[in-house]
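Much of what follows relies on a compact textual record of a protein's fold. With that in mind, consider the following protein and its fold in token form.
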Amino acid sequence: MKYLVLLILLCSRMVFAWCPDEGQVITLQGALAEHTYPGPPNYESIENGDEAVTNEFIQLDEPLECDLTQENESVAEVQLVFVGKSQASAAQLSPNQKHMIVATGKTMYAHAGRHYTPVLLLVDEVKPVAMALTPELKKSMLAQFQQFQQALRSNDVAAVKSWFLFPLNGDTYGFEPDTESQPYSKLTAEAFDRYGHQIIANLRLLSEVEVNPDTLEIKERRINALSAKEQQRRYFPGDEDGTFYYEENGQRHVVVGTCDEVASGEFNEETLTVYQGTSANNTLPGLSEMCDGASLFNFKLIEGKLRLVSSFTVG
């Protein structure tokens, strides 16, 4: 029996004690990381004048075991070199977000000062690994989102800022609706410090979305564009698209469809996506090209804390 156990241990060691050949196409999985090391001219010390060089690395789920220097060495990280189309894919990933990724490419052994790990990967393709959101994680996200809402309601600039991961990916239209005079093209910490109160004012509707961490329910917040009196009228389709009419005191009155302000949210893979925008009024619906538009705000759990990581505007 003890020989069987020994054989199993040896086989297990053979499975994990693996080092790829140079030029071999492999796929690695792990956490995306970013490190800064001394660069040219001497690759020895930033303090002594070497350039600070920042590169991306993958922290492997299972280390490689290589003997490239005549000694068995555990390689827990592999430096990533993005080439061709993989550069565009990599631009969508941020090491600050602790992305789990799958990277495919050819291996290369270190042979220059700019190579910071024994094995490097010339990346052909990289993509994030979606983290499955369990009910407990969703509950945590909604409970923390309620705290974010309270910070918005309190107009607490410092508290609201703590929920952002800067620089924010995506566009800035959701924070500054006046697209004709965008004061900043990228939402950085510095831009937030300058326009914080205005940003909070533009996000105010998000604070009115009703969420329930216990039931994981997110209810739409809708501000009806019609007055109470207008809502009581009976409308009929007009002769032209987007028009309606109602009759009052024996006369026909033609009106145009309108849009409501709306805000809501939903879970998507590893994100809590909340949005605010406009939608056709249920009683007097405006045309889709006039009403269908929203800014989407994507929240993720980063080391257990809910963070706003990106924003995109559609419509």
